[in-house]
Specification:
This protein has 18 helices and no strands. It is an all-alpha fold and about 500 residues long.
Length: about 500
């Protein structure tokens, strides 16, 4: 099959994305322009940008693969995502806007001290690098299949495109490209669904009345019929979805610089609240769309045995359909949409990790470095390279990449969110309490994750509970010491 048209479409798209990011980013005169978009970006634009940033290739590839193997139970997690964002809007954003806005971790320095800010920033950088290394690798899967190249070259192409407009257009360029790319990948998913129903599935919409497909349309899984052990190992029960999704979303959208950086770009707490809650509503519909794509793919292939399709993992089922079944030109548009999802997240990661490095880490040592735009761009280049190298580590991973990435994030998110919540709700907690609590939360999560007995949707809740408990118990000792000293 001649793929010339596909190659042309993808090439033009990649070039167009880079140019659009450069143009919309405008001229960067300061690090405030570069990392905060001059705090003048409309909240609706930020809302779409958040959705694009959190979506990545995981939604485009792994979510259909998950539905192909199971059903629509994952949608319960997205309801939790909305609950978590509402909590971010109510509790976290007002606290952030009381101080000098730089990064998500500026609040922690104001509340506790520079050590807490530095430690939290380091945890964010580690988590974001590992999780987005997975996402970057996932993007390389279809590019490798389409071009017949090795993973390192596929990863290099994606990194270079994202770096070009991130390093020149700054956060504003990243956000505006995100908006365009969200509509591109959503459009690609809709086109795929239409082709599946009209060209590949003889029953058309009637496929939804067949026994196997009706079973796969199950959304609610109460999980109460499970035994205690299996109840907490079930990732997609209703309690796990609502609670786990809520706490995970609070952490990812309230303490992760990737998202908080965009919220700060609105320059106003009310606008930031509208942006974060609006993104939660959009995400529910978006996940439903990609889950339905997975159901339709099962309706087309009609087999759970991936080996009969010459596939190693369910992540490959959607790329296989795009490349082997869709007409030339259409497949190029869909793959462009896939890259849209991936590049938006990668560009955001490069920008957010760089801003945290400059503002939270280096600025504490060299006070004027945060005003040096040249150094900021050098740091941006450095992290683009690191993310590319990290992606290579996951080439041989047998786990579904969506679950792998979310597990990595949950590994530290509990301690991170617990630290922020302790600052808001535990009034007498101090830096000497919260850092040990944070570390304890991470240690407990190491044990929980390696036990393999608890599902990833419970990780953030456990981490938050441990961190808050230790911070609260040790802060009681502070109060007792004050009373004792006062009596003396």
């Amino acid at each position: 099959m001649d793929r010339t048209l596909d190659y042309l479409i993808i090439t033009l798209y990649l070039i167009g994305v880079a140019l659009f990011g450069i143009i919309t980013g405008g001229r960067q005169k300061s690090t405030k322009d570069y990392f905060l978009g001059s705090q003048s970006v409309p909240w609706g634009t930020v809302c779409f940008s958040i959705v694009a940033a959190e979506t990545s290739t995981l939604t485009f590839i792994s979510i259909p693969g998950l539905a192909y193997l199971t059903n629509l139970n994952f949608l319960q997690v997205t309801f939790g995502y909305l609950i978590g964002r509402i909590a971010v809007a109510i509790f976290l954003l007002p606290a952030y806007y009381k101080g000098n806005i730089q990064t998500a971790y500026s609040y922690l320095e104001t509340r506790y001290g520079v050590k807490t800010r530095t430690f939290s920033s380091l945890v964010f950088i580690f988590t974001r690098t590992a999780a987005d290394g997975v996402r970057l690798f996932a993007t390389a899967i279809p590019l490798k299949l389409l071009l017949g190249i090795d993973y390192p070259y596929a990863i290099l192409i994606i990194v270079v495109v994202a770096l070009i407009y991130t390093i020149t257009g700054g956060l504003k360029g990243v956000i505006w490209v995100d908006v365009i790319q969200m509509f591109i990948y959503i459009g690609g998913a809709i086109i795929t669904g239409i082709f599946l129903l009209t060209e590949f599935i003889p029953e058309g919409l009637g496929i939804f009345s067949t026994v196997q497909i009706v079973e796969k349309l199950s959304i609610i899984n109460l999980g109460f019929e499970n035994e205690i052990g299996s109840f907490f190992s079930d990732n997609y029960s209703l309690p796990a979805g609502l609670l786990g999704g809520a706490f995970l979303s609070m952490a990812s959208h309230g303490t992760d610089q990737l998202i908080v950086q965009r919220l700060f770009a609105t320059g106003d707490v009310r606008k930031a609240q509208l942006a974060v809650i609006g993104s939660g509503v959009i995400v529910i519909f978006q996940f439903a769309l990609f889950l339905l794509i997975g159901v339709l793919l099962f309706g087309y292939y009609k087999t759970y045995d991936l080996s009969t399709l010459n596939l190693l993992k369910a992540d490959e089922i959607f790329p296989k359909f795009i490349i082997e079944s869709l007409p030339v030109g259409i497949s190029g548009l869909i793959i462009a949409g896939l890259f849209a999802a991936a590049i938006s997240t990668l560009a955001g990661s490069i920008s957010s990790i760089s801003s945290s490095t400059i503002m939270d880490l280096l600025n504490s040592k060299w006070k004027n470095i945060s005003e040096n735009l040249f150094i900021s761009r050098i740091v941006t280049l450095f992290w683009a390279v690191i993310l590319g190298l990290t992606a290579l580590l996951f080439i041989n991973s047998p786990t579904l990449v969506v679950e792998l990435a979310l597990s990595i994030a949950s590994f530290t998110y509990g301690g991170l969110l617990g630290t922020f919540l302790s600052g808001i709700f535990i009034k007498n907690s101090q830096e000497k309490n919260v850092i040990p609590a944070f570390i304890t939360g991470i240690i407990v999560m190491i044990v929980v994750i390696y036990s393999g007995k608890i599902g990833w949707t419970w990780y953030t809740i456990i981490g938050v509970a441990v961190t808050l408990s230790v911070a609260w118990l040790t802060s009681l000792w502070n109060k007792e010491r004050v009373i004792k000293d006062g009596n003396n």
